[in-house]
Fold this sequence. Notes:
Helix content is 43%, strand content 18%. By secondary structure, the protein is of the alpha+beta class. The protein has two domains: 8-166, Regulatory protein AraC (Jelly Rolls), CATH 2.60.120.280; 176-285, Homeodomain-like (Arc Repressor Mutant, subunit A, Orthogonal Bundle), CATH 1.10.10.60. The strands form three sheets. Strands 2-9-4-7-10-11 form a six-stranded antiparallel β-sheet. The longest helix has 19 residues, at 227-245.
Amino acid sequence: MIFHMKAEFQYVIKAANDSFLMKIVERQKRPVLKGAWHYHPDVEITLTLKGRGKRFVGNDISNYREGDLVMLGKNLPHCWLTKSQSKQVVIQIPESFYLGPFFRRPEMKEISLLFNKCIKGIRFHGKTKEGAIDKIYDLLKLKGYPKLIALLDLLHYFSASEEFKFLTPIEYNPELNLLKSERIQKFYSFVLNNYMNDITLEDASNLLSMTKTSLCRFLKNNTQKSFSKILNEVKVSHACKKLIETDMQVIGICYESGFNDVTNFNRRFKELIKLTPLEYRKRFSKKV
């Protein structure tokens, strides 16, 4: 059976006297996406204590098992599917916490950068994962002020690590409010609103009152990406959502996503997602 669905919004309820939610989630099984595929504005840290299956995060589909440790950013759709019993520790940090004035202090810079990075989803490994698991077990035993300090310590520990891998090769849902530069915001707004049309580097440079050369340099310095790479990422991200959420034919998704021919669409899609569109739809849609 194939599921075409939109991720469901989930409202995270925490206790009135807690700044964040921490809980143990146990399930007998969860074999299908229906009712599981969701998103929320809360940043989430999930440690799998027991179970194995498929982890779905944004555009990524991967196997997971005991010891899997991930951090997921704001509004990044996700779910874990399993045919067997599972047990996970879930920490959910609300917007009011991580977007508050406290994290704008200089001492919080690295943790703030971590919140930005996890928009693409992060999987930790190596010594970082081992140390974090101990810290998470300690967190479970704490309450009140010590619990809050222990969370900050965990976040700082993550922020200092290089032992991680991004889960999604492209942003599933680009967050313009995280782009500091007004010019960058204007550029991304233009691309997001017009990617389905045949827009060019010249169109974008005219909008920003820059030469094409200056815009290329500006994008490279501020995003580490070229104009064409950003444009293709946005187009492919839209295509991924259509492949998951609808039963449209690939050729229709190709043109709706702003590509002019199917061959180029398939090539760009595979470059970014490492699967063909049909492989992606089949892999995402089937049961564990």
